[in-house]
Amino acid sequence: MPAPAPGSLGWLLREVRERQGLTREVLAGISGVSVTTISELELGITVRPHRATVRKLADALGLSGDELASFEEAGRRGVPARKARPAPDSQRDVRSGADVAASPISGLTVAQGMATRALPYPIRSFTGREGELAELAGVLSDAGGTGIRAIQGMPGVGKTALAVQAAHQAAGSFPGGQFYIDLQGHTRGLRPLKPDEALRSVLHNCLGMPNEVIPRKLDERAAVYRSLLAGTRTLILLDNAASSAQVRPLLPGDPGCAVIVTSRQNLRGLDDAEPLGLGILPDDEAVALFRTTAGPERFPADDPDLVRIAGLCGGLPLAVRIIAAWMRYRPLLTASDARELLSDGRERLAHLRSEDLSVRAAFELSYGRLPDAEQRMFRRLGLIPGLDFDARAAASLAGGDAWPLLESLVDHNLLTQHARGRYRLHDLVRAYARSLAAREGTAVSGRLLDFYLHAAQAADVHFERRSPGPGQVRPVSAPASAPLPGTAGQARAWVSTELANLNAAARHAASSGRADFTISLSMALAQYLRVYGPWPQGILLHRLAGAMARETGDSEGQAAALVHAGVLHRQLGELRADKAALSQASGLYRRLGNRRGLAAALLELGVAKRLSDMAEDGGRDLSEALALYRELGDRHGEAGALAELGGLQRQTGEFEAALENLRQALGLFRGLGIRYGKAFTLGYLGSVQWTTGATEEARKSLDGALEIYRERGDPIGQANMLMFLGGVCKDAGLLEEAAAALEEARCLYAAAGYRRGVAGVLTYLGDVQQLNGDPEAAERSVSQALELFREVGDSGGEAEALNHYAALAMAKGAADEALARYEQGLKTARQIGSRKDEADALAGIARAHTFTGDVPQARASYQQALDLYESMHLDADAERVRQALSGIGTED
């Protein structure tokens, strides 16, 4: 059948429609005239429509003036309709100029004329996607770059917008036409088009075949479709596909044609398709989209609220467009108003809707197409309080193997696998899942909490302690899916990966009547958090557990949480908070009569006091803890208390007693097979051996401890040993080796946020820098160390650093400045009972007086220092003082 003559109604209708970029379906929706009527007018099958039909079409096309008059005149004039006639044995395809075989279908006639350009109008506010657009449009525009491109992604991510944009850019490379077919895979109120329906649509609306000659069978329609496209370069955009089976019959057989498919599902059944997964927009592109849609002149690009809005929308283009369009019609509102509107996570989805657009509705359509098992799994994923999860956590919710269900949800783009074996819901999808999760009940949620707690307790078994913990583990029954790590490394890896989820689970449990979970989890994670951190998060967890224990009358749980929180305060250098928490814990344990808990609290309290200015009180606490552990027959606790008592005696200059206690502790730890305790004790032992001049023994002890800490992956333990080894190497004249050890220690401390450790390293590093001829760097290092020690309240570290700081002043000949620093160090050392630092300060004061010529004061200070060194059996230090005394003569 020939195409309608120029000037006829059909010719004008098609010419105007295509000029405006409208498909027949879109025009039908605007005008209220059926797609069939529009098609028959354009094909010349109907030539004299009802006057009302002409008027509806003219109004929908926005015609006016002469164009409207011509259109209405053509409708009145009309010509007699002609019957379809059989096609000849061969016909000329006007799109490509090639002869094509006649269709085997009797009576087939295809409209002749210009190629179909049926692409939807591109979105004016299309923003970003430069990489994806360049990849897609570039491939399509390439003369040899034909094939199938499948764009897939979650609802609202902008698949259609990208496909239409790319198709328009590549249109010039496809003179055979550009077809658009909405397959209605996820269209509200409509079922997906069947393949035969889709073929009828494209054959009639895009290829101009009269309905009466289109074959009835699917395979025959597909054969005609491929035959008509043979030899052409045609671009077919199949939008909103439901499945691979729906798409396959619509794939042309000619390599000169290209296909773009968009779908919310991963179309794995299209073997030859090149997938293009479309993710959310990065912040800068989401902000640009918001500004373009809302009005670019209205909001400055650097408005910080825009980034927050983009984040609250999860970078989802549909959400960004909806809130931006809402703002466009509310000129009095600011970006902060939009941010505030979206800040309530419970109501966010309700606000992300506008007329027929709704983020929630988009998710509902995808959810509604899921099989029952996947729907149930999706709802239960909304019960997960954290941001991601693995298949084992999901299995605790599913009550069985969850992996196939998760993979199906990934294929439906309602779930992403962001790392190997780990899954995540988009923020807005999570909000939707949580809105559905209420129907699952608390029993399912309880299974997830039991999974997390059992797994955390199983991991905790592999984390050795220097002394027993203060609380008794409250075991939970083992879920079938819970991991059972076989090594400390596996346990550490699991907790590290799940820590954010465990913290979220603790908060969720606290707010939903599961205080027992939060308290038990605090105990299970205590040793991991102590060693690996992050300490601020750990403090929040232990505080939450303590609050829950107090509310439920669980005094033992409250006391244990206080001990754990106190230790982490110490790690952060917050010694005042450390002592306060541990004092409260020890008081609770005394009232409860819990000797084991009291011993643990007193041990930690003794350490806290040693590090501040209460060494004598700390010694009493540690001695009481030691006695309690011996009464209980707890050799692990006894070993830990002995080691800490040795550490305190090291500070107070009781080196022989310290060595005795540390050797006892070491023997106990070795007998118990607790390598972590062995490492801890070796570190104390090495520092005492270094101080007393047993350099080789010190290095052996410190190396042994470092080996264990490296094996355990303990960053603070490694840094402590490296710091002491740096000091040992410095005293041995191995300055390069000393600097390397100290720098590694500094990096480890800094990464962990352990300021007290950084201060200690800087103290020793200053000595190395001075010996290397860089006094200015040495001054900076020790000055910074002093500042840090004062910030964290470590008086022992401050006393030692003051002596180093004074020595730097003496090295540059500033005796008065050195004297002032030594006297300050002497005062601090006496306050905390650190006899070694006191003796070092007195020896320094004597040197300063010698420099200024005050011989009597010099001799008096040297003598005091000598008495202290001899009382501590520090023979090398005592001998240096004797030599100094003999060198300054006698008093006149």
Folded structure, characterized:
The protein is mainly alpha-helical and 892 residues long. Among the domains are: 9-83, 434 Repressor (Amino-terminal Domain), CATH 1.10.260; 130-277, Rossmann fold (3-Layer(aba) Sandwich); 283-358; 370-440, Winged helix-like DNA-binding domain superfamily/Winged helix DNA-binding domain (Arc Repressor Mutant, subunit A, Orthogonal Bundle), CATH 1.10.10; 444-622, Serine Threonine Protein Phosphatase 5, Tetratricopeptide repeat (Alpha Horseshoe), CATH 1.25.40; 634-701, Tetratricopeptide repeat domain (Serine Threonine Protein Phosphatase 5, Tetratricopeptide repeat, Alpha Horseshoe), CATH 1.25.40.10. The chain is built from 41 helices and twelve strands. The strands form four sheets. Strands 4-5-6-3-7 form a five-stranded parallel beta sheet, sandwiched between helices. A three-stranded antiparallel beta sheet has the order 10-12-11. A hairpin with a 6-residue loop joins strand 1 and strand 2 (99-101). Mean pLDDT is 87; it is low at 79-114.
